[in-house]
Every structure is written in C-alpha cells, then in structure tokens.
Design a protein that fits this description.
The protein is of the alpha/beta class. It has a single domain (2-62, 104-320), classed as Class I glutamine amidotransferase (GATase) domain (Rossmann fold, 3-Layer(aba) Sandwich), CATH 3.40.50. The protein has helices spanning 9-12, 16-19, 38-51, 77-102, 125-136, 156-162, 280-283, 286-301; strands at 2-4, 25-31, 55-61, 113-116, 141-145, 174-177, 183-186, 195-196, 200-206, 220-226, 229-230, 239-247, 256-266, 269-274, 318-320. The longest helix has 26 residues, at 77-102.
C-alpha cells in the first residue's frame, strides 16, 4: 500500500527545527550524462535536500555527448547523401564535445559534499585526481546514488570510494548478509555480477540501528517501487554496511540479502552510498528522501541533526510525497 499526501511541502517532511539552527551545508550535484532521467532526478534531489533547511545545492552539468546518426535502411543515393551529411555534423559535434569534456572541472573544493548523479564518459585525469584528493584529504564528503555506481569502471580509486557497484562478477568481491545477520564476503568470480529483477516495493532492513543516518528508523521499512540492485562488486574496503534488502527470486533476484545503505571511509573522507533511486517513483519515497538528506549531512559533517518525518514508511506501508 502507498500512503500519498497532498499537504504542504513543509508539512510533508518536517525537518526545519533543528536543521535551521545550524549553518547550511553546501552540496554540489554532478549530472549531465546518465542512462537514467537525470533531468528529472537532479531537480528532485535538489528540491528535497533544500527542503530540509540544512543544505544549499548547486549543480554542475557535464557536456552532453552527441549520438551518431543511424545508418539508413534504404540504399538509394539520397539516403546515403543524407547520412553522410549527418555524419559530418556528428563528427563536428563530437570534436566539440571532446574539447568541452577535457575542460570539465567542477569546483569540488567550494563544497562540503559532492553528490554524483552521473553515469557516463570518464572525466579528465585532472578532474578525477581532484575528486580523489577532495575526499581523501577530508575536504568534503561524497554521496553516491543509484546509477552513479555504474560509472567509471576501471578507475581504481573510484571503486575504493564507492566500495562496490554495478560491475561484472569477475571485477571484484561481493558482500551479502546471511539469514543470521552475519556478513558474507563472496570472492571475485564466484556467484552473480551486478543486476536487478523487475521493479517492485521491497523492505529495507536496518543492520546497524546505532548509525546516525538510520538512527530512529523502524527496524524494517517498506520502500516504494524501485530497482533492487544485486550482485554488486568491488574492492569492499573500509565499507560499513548499514542496511540491506532481501532480493526475492520471485521478482528476478538472487534470493539473498543485498546491500542497500552503506558508508565508506576513504582516507580522511566519508562516503554515503545507496543504490536506491532508479527514477522518481523510488525517489518520492519518504524513506529514500530522509535517507538521502541524513546521508548527505553525515557525509559532509560526520553527524546527523535532521529528524525523521512523522510520515516515514512502516514495515507494511510505503509512504511517498506527491508527484508535484
């Protein structure tokens, strides 16, 4: 069941009381390339971070990657000429894109946290190094949401920052929880790689109820319809697992408990990571919004002052904010 509310924004998630007393945290969202609808999800996350009263949010959008034209189905001279013209325009756009991408350098150092909503081409070496130093030196925290863990395969330091992500079985280790609640590390090459079954509502089980991000949450709460990532792979170093979700075989899953909320210590920096948030259906979940807000605050400061809303999901009922 879904509980939807049509009351005012301030009443949907009451978070201003303690948050307003503290200095606002500056957050930079990175987007521009993603196989998900970043044009919808970035404004949504920005809106709800700022609605907490705890954040100011800017957005850095990477250059748009041009798509090559489709080859013509017809073999006539006119179709060939049109395709050649389209290819010429594409090659020009591609050269302009590569030049722009080479200059893509968000000012990470101006912010207390960076939120990645990006899944696309690799950034320039200078930009990658800048993010590594930003997090490792404790200049700011990193927030990873959903498909951001699909990106940058082969960037070793990014893999260390995110802990695990959308990678093949041979890419790295895998972390699960057995039925007794014990962590189980699955070796590289054993078991499935990353994937997901069909979208559905699923429970989120809190494994460390003392962690500030989830403190006060029900031991289990029902997340709105979303993709449930399974088989994520990576180095899994300095990972602190906070919550999992059972990945039922009935919905195309693994039949195991998969990581859903975790943190990573990367040098002096803090990373908050959740694979929830495929689209607005999942992101409108009050549980997702509260987790994002509290996770971002923790990544930036190491503390959480944002209270849980009264309309937080229960073990049997989801809770979502209105579409608009």
């Amino acid at each position: 069941m879904v509980r939807a509310f049509s009351i005012s924004l301030a009443a949907i998630i009451v978070l201003g009381t303690t948050a307003n007393a503290a200095e606002k945290i500056s957050v930079l969202i990175i987007d521009g390339q993603n196989n998900h609808a970043w044009q919808q999800t970035t404004p949504h996350m920005k809106k709800w971070l700022e609605a907490s009263g705890r954040f100011t949010v800017d957005v850095a959008t990477a250059p748009a990657k041009p798509r090559p034209p489709a080859k013509p189905k017809a073999d006539d001279a006119e179709s060939k000429a049109r395709f050649e013209d389209e290819m010429a325009r594409f090659k020009k756009a591609e050269a302009e894109y590569k030049a722009a991408m080479a200059q893509f350098r968000p000012a990470f150092e101006k912010y207390q946290a960076v939120l990645s909503n990006y899944n696309g081409d690799h950034w320039p070496e200078e930009t990658r190094k800048a993010l590594e130093e930003y997090v490792a030196n404790g200049k700011g925290g990193l927030v990873i949401v959903h498909a951001a863990n699909n990106s940058f395969s082969g960037w070793q330091e990014y893999d260390l920052m995110i802990g695990m992500g959308w990678r093949g079985a041979g890419y790295g280790d895998r972390l699960t929880i057995d039925d007794k609640g014990a962590e189980k590390l699955v070796a590289k090459g054993q078991g499935p790689g990353a994937g997901h079954g069909r979208q559905h509502e699923f429970p989120v089980t809190i494994r460390d109820r003392s962690h500030p991000i989830v403190e006060g949450m029900p031991p289990e709460w029902l997340h709105a319809q979303d993709e449930l990532y399974h088989g994520m792979r990576g180095p899994i170093r300095n990972v602190h697992l906070i919550a999992t979700s059972f990945c039922d075989k009935k919905t195309g899953g693994t039949g195991e408990h998969e990581p859903m909320i975790w943190t990573v210590q990367y040098g002096k920096g803090r990373v908050f990571h959740t694979p929830m948030g495929h689209d607005l259906k999942g992101m409108r979940c009050v549980g997702f919004i509260a987790t994002l807000q509290r996770g971002a605050e923790w990544a930036a400061t190491g503390k959480v002052t944002i209270p849980l809303p009264e309309n937080f999901p229960t073990a049997t009922k989801t809770s979502s904010v209105p579409e608009k």
